[in-house]
Hints:
By secondary structure, the protein is of the alpha/beta class. The protein has three domains: 18-112, NAD(P)-binding Rossmann-like Domain (Rossmann fold), CATH 3.40.50.720; 117-338, UDP-N-acetylmuramoyl-L-alanine:D-glutamate ligase (3-Layer(aba) Sandwich), CATH 3.40.1190; 347-484, Alpha-Beta Complex (Protein-Tyrosine Phosphatase, Chain A), CATH 3.90.190.20. The chain is built from 18 helices and 20 strands. It has helices at 30-42, 55-63, 73-83, 99-106, 114-120, 140-153, 168-172, 187-192, 211-214, 217-225, 242-250, 309-324, 329-338, 366-373, 393-399, 413-423, 438-449, 471-486, and strands at residues 22-26, 45-50, 67-70, 87-90, 111-112, 130-135, 158-162, 180-184, 200-203, 234-238, 258-262, 271-275, 278-281, 293-297, 347-352, 355-359, 379-383, 403-408, 429-431, 455-458. β1, α1 (30-42) and β2 (45-50) form a beta-alpha-beta unit. α6 (140-153) packs across α12 (309-324). It is globular and about 70 Å long. The N and C termini lie far apart (73 Å).
Amino acid sequence: MANPQDALEHLSSWHSDWSTLKVAVIGLAKTGFSVADTLNELGAEVLVVTESADPELLEVIEVLGIKNLVAPLDELTAAVGDFAPDLVVVSPGIAPTNPLIQNVSAKGIPVWGDVDLAWRLRDRFGSNQEWICVTGTNGKTTVVELTEAMLLSAGVKAVACGNIGKPILDCIRDPAEFEVLVVELSSFQLHYLNEIRPFSAACLNVAEDHLDWHGSFEAYRNSKARIYEGTQVACVYNLEDATTEQLVQSATVQEGARAIGFGLGTPKPSNVGYVDEFLVDRAFLEQRADSALEVASLEDFQGLGVLTPHLLSNIAAATALARSFGVPPAACREALRNFRVSSHRIELVLEKDGVRYIDDSKATNAHAASASLSSFEKVVWILGGQLKGVDISDLIAKFSSRLRAAIIIGAERAEIMSIFAKTAPQVPLFEVTDEKLVMEAAVKLANQAAEPGDVVLLAPAAASMDQFASYQDRGNKFAQAVKNELGGKNG
């Protein structure tokens, strides 16, 4: 029997004939809309199916004349069956265990993500566009944004896109005609990925996350591993995370692609790291065996906010990616001087009476929370939310000696309280039971527990959707509660 995927091989370009293709698009958020809009522009016959949709996006889909159905899952499955698509393109948040996906897969219908489609269409304005791809449990967005800034500083027409919030297909079609896409890829997107050939790729770290979606850590790890497949020039890995090096070693890459390590220590040849107060490159220079290029000094990082080891690691990773594309050290340095880390990433909200209030609402998993906690000596820790199937016992045990107190929020409070009772019974616990004024209550409790020299740290180690609209909403409410409680005065 012929492989259905083979029947799509001729669709390898924006300029291919897509008009004979029937495509079911599953999901209608930003990504799903970008897929449907693109395929409609290409002339394909499109059916969008979703259990829920933003009314504004649905209205635009209607105006474009794209067939759609918003209905319960069993009705969507029947509708897709009747439509008999040649291809299904799935939005990244939809798990492979979804009955609709399982039904489609059982019929042998090819399933793509938006990244697969974008890869085939990247020649919209020519064939020279390159992709630099980044994944990792923690730090992806900072590295993608910083790599973009370094490329722009060198005069390269680059854009950060993908999981960062800007759909990759929107950038493919942008009249700006980007030379380089710096693509943030989540484990969800990588799970559905078939084949791309990035110019350079990086996996920053791998730790337990999204186990409820993937089903196991092995499956999550295997999704991350796909980032390196087909890489042309540089496979950038974390010298302090052995798993990332293992992923590079097992990847099938283009001939001549190099393994480039990044870290906080003195770099060996083919690495990027630090010597005293200097960021140095021993990877992308001819005499790397016995010399190094100075890229920047810690003085150049003064505008970056709280300079944690995790941030320094991210800077080294972005530098390695930018240097792989030939960005001069001076352009990297200029970008670092002007760069500002996005909100809710170990962000200082306020300092008063010797206590610092830090917003790291982006710490939606244990690995990210660990990076935060390791940066401070004494912490009043605000944590909790949706744990996504991850056991945070090791995290609590590891940092229990640093905790002045823990303030527990979120839907899984009872589980977290139980973990503390078993692994760190000496830590004072405060439970927030107010479901409406969550952060106001948490900040009041934190203020009561904090002493001069402490850090009140929002690093939830959990997702936010149980009590907040997003991690941004959670961080904003924390910052506002701090300012309200303390009168907005620095001291």
